[in-house]
């Protein structure tokens, strides 16, 4: 099965802005936070906000306190005034494109124009827009209602931002023929246009179509209508769990499946749907099923990532001309294995927006995984102790820091700091994980053997840390939409996906050049030239993701981790090649 994911899928600008505003408000404000009505039309996002203590205000009370966030759809001006009079502070997350329509309606309503609004009568955006039209507003949902309108001397026609483009084109043709004096404003959001146009193109290429999004989302329902009109089997689901209730064979047997999603569908839901579809071809017996299952098991148990850390250490020890590499190889594997499992177990509630399969695996095997983590940690410290006091103390400090990542270190009685856990510090996960990999690979071995660290060791540390940083930051990008609801300030969130991607490209270009330069000046062996293949491949994988050749899932994660395994393999065969 091939899967084609629409590039326009997921949060539109207005929804993303609203979600980020309410997430930031809850992090920065100890007072009560409310949204006036549901923030967006997606039950999963609303549940996440509820768990953060953000309540939905369905009506304006006589008196209140705290902050009320006005949702992306906007509200009538009368509602704004009533909320202020009740004592609330307002945080306006109305989409800028909706504000533009509000401004147009207000202007022409004051000039005694009739306002013809093309949209769904009960939609939150339409209700908000009507508040600016007053008694001059007329909502039209179909051509029959349009024909029933009286003729106006002066009127404007505007549309709900998520309206069906074909319907609005029909309205424009009607106005041109029947009432050429009416002024028409193109107010359908360009995100909606792109989403609908892309879906039509995808429908011509695939054998079945999945539309992902809330059943109460108007723009998602319109995408589903377009998909059905294509004549291909089309299904509207909210989450990956809904795949069990649809005509599964139509999807499972389709050689090519297209996925599109509404403007209020978060990235993590789209990713989970893709993960579920990705597994369908491997449900049947055969070598492909066994190979995919093995890949998934190696990733779920963290065996593959810890082996990758060990291989990176092995490559760096060979690069520095060290021969007694086995202890450092083992320490890296055992340390990374223990820290990953322990922090996953501690933070299992925090990670719930990323991969339900992963959560289920850890819930069902919590005890054996915990035993494995403790044993791996003890064994890594034992090996380090055998190497000497310096390596043992260094690894002990790293272990304490790793164990404390998800633990509350600053009590609530100290009010002046927002950082109560290590994970609360912006970018801490990315820096700590990559630094730990760098220390294990390039600092601990020379410290144990020579008792000192040279500047060449420092440069190799930067190379290993840089490669680990790109790996961790890239996975942060894949998870960033879920992270916005769990207060995890990664670099991907702080900088934004596009800026973060540009930085990863710059880092990788530097890493590609770094080791060959050291090799040319004979500061390290010629192995440095061969190892430059690793950041080059990482650059290729990230570029493939950006161009939608690789989508988030088991195969993408396996590709990334394999790059570190490759580093060890290159170092292993280097003596024979040289």
Portion of residues in beta strands equals 5-15%
Number of strands: 12
Enter the CATH topology name of the largest domain: Farnesyl Diphosphate Synthase
Number of domain units: 4
Which class of the largest domain in CATH terms? Answer: Mainly Alpha
Strand order of the largest sheet: 1-12-10-11
Shape label? elongated
Helix count, DSSP H or I runs of 4 or more residues:
24
Oligomer: single chain
**What Rg do the Cα atoms give?**
28 Å
Helix content: 55-70%
The unreliable regions are none
Distinctive features:
four-stranded parallel β-sheet; 578 residues; single chain; 24 helices; 4 domains; Rossmann fold; alpha/beta; Cobalt-precorrin-4 Transmethylase, domain 1
Descriptive account of the structure:
60% of the residues lie in helices and 9% in strands. It has 578 residues and is an alpha/beta fold. It is elongated and about 90 Å long. It has 24 helices and 12 strands. The strands form 3 sheets. Strands 1-12-10-11 form a 4-stranded parallel sheet, sandwiched between helices. A 4-stranded parallel sheet has the order 3-2-4-5, with helices on both faces. It starts with a strand and ends with a helix. It has 4 domains: 10-94, 3-Layer(aba) Sandwich (Rossmann fold); 98-188, 4-hydroxy-3-methylbut-2-enyl diphosphate reductase, catalytic domain (Cobalt-precorrin-4 Transmethylase, domain 1, 3-Layer(aba) Sandwich), CATH 3.40.1010; 195-292, 3-Layer(aba) Sandwich (Cobalt-precorrin-4 Transmethylase, domain 1), CATH 3.40.1010; 294-409 and 416-577, Orthogonal Bundle (Farnesyl Diphosphate Synthase). The mean pLDDT is 87. The longest helix is centred in the C-terminal third of the chain and has 29 residues, at 455-483. Helix 19 (455-483) packs antiparallel against helix 21.
């Amino acid at each position: 099965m091939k899967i084609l994911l629409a590039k326009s899928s997921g949060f539109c600008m207005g929804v993303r802005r609203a979600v980020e505003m309410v997430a930031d408000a809850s992090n920065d404000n100890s007072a009560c936070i409310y949204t006036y009505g549901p923030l967006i039309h997606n039950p999963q996002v609303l549940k996440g906000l509820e768990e953060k203590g953000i309540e939905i205000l369905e009506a304006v009370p006589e008196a209140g306190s705290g902050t009320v966030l006005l949702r992306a759809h906007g509200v009538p001006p009368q509602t704004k005034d009533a909320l202020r009079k009740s004592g609330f502070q307002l945080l306006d997350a109305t989409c800028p494109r909706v504000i533009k329509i509000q401004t147009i309606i207000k202007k022409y309503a004051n000039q005694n124009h009739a306002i013809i609004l093309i949209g769904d009568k009960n939609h939150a955006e339409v209700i908000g827009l009507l508040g600016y039209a007053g008694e001059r507003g007329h909502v039209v949902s179909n051509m029959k209602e349009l024909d029933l309108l009286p003729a106006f001397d002066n009127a404007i026609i505007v549309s709900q931002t998520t309206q069906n483009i074909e319907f609005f084109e029909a309205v424009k043709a009607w106005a041109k023929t029947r009432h050429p004096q009416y002024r028409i404003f193109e107010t359908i959001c360009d995100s909606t246009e792109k989403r609908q146009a892309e879906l039509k193109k995808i429908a011509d290429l695939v054998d079945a179509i999945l539309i992902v999004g809330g059943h109460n989302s108007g723009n998602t329902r319109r995408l589903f209508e377009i998909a059905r009109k294509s004549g291909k089997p089309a299904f509207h689901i909210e989450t990956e769990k809904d795949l069990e209730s649809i005509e599964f064979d139509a999807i499972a047997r389709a050689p090519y499946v297209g996925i599109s999603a509404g403007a209020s569908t978060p990235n993590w839901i789209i990713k989970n749907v893709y993960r579920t579809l990705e597994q369908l071809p491997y449900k049947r017996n055969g070598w492909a099923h066994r190979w995919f299952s093995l890949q998934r098991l190696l990733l779920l148990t963290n065996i593959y990532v810890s082996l990758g850390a060990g291989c990176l250490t092995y490559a760096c020890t060979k690069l520095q001309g060290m021969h007694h590499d086995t202890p450092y190889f083992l320490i890296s594997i055992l340390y990374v294995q223990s820290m990953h499992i322990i922090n996953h177990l501690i933070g299992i509630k925090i990670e719930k927006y990323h991969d339900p399969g992963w959560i289920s695996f850890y819930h069902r095997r919590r005890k054996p995984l915990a035993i494995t983590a403790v044993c791996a940690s003890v064994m890594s410290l034992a090996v380090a102790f055998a190497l000497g006091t310096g390596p043992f103390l260094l690894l002990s400090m790293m272990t304490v820091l790793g164990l404390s990542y998800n633990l509350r270190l600053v009590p609530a009685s100290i009010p002046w700091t927002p950082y109560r856990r290590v994970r609360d510090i912006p970018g801490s996960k990315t820096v700590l994980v990559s630094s730990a990999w760098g220390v294990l690979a390039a600092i601990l071995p020379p410290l144990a053997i020579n008792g000192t660290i040279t500047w060449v060791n420092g440069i190799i540390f930067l190379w290993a840390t840089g490669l680990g940083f790109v790996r961790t930051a890239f996975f942060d990008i894949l998870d960033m939409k879920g992270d916005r609801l769990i207060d995890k300030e990664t670099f991907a969130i702080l900088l934004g996906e596009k800026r973060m991607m540009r930085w990863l490209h710059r880092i990788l270009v530097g890493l590609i050049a770094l080791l060959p330069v050291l090799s040319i000046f004979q500061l390290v062996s010629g192995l440095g030239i061969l190892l430059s293949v690793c950041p080059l491949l990482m650059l290729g994988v990230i570029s493939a993701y950006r161009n939608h050749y690789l989508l988030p899932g088991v195969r993408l994660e396996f590709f990334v981790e394999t790059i570190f395994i490759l580093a060890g393999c290159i170092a292993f065969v280097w003596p024979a090649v040289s």
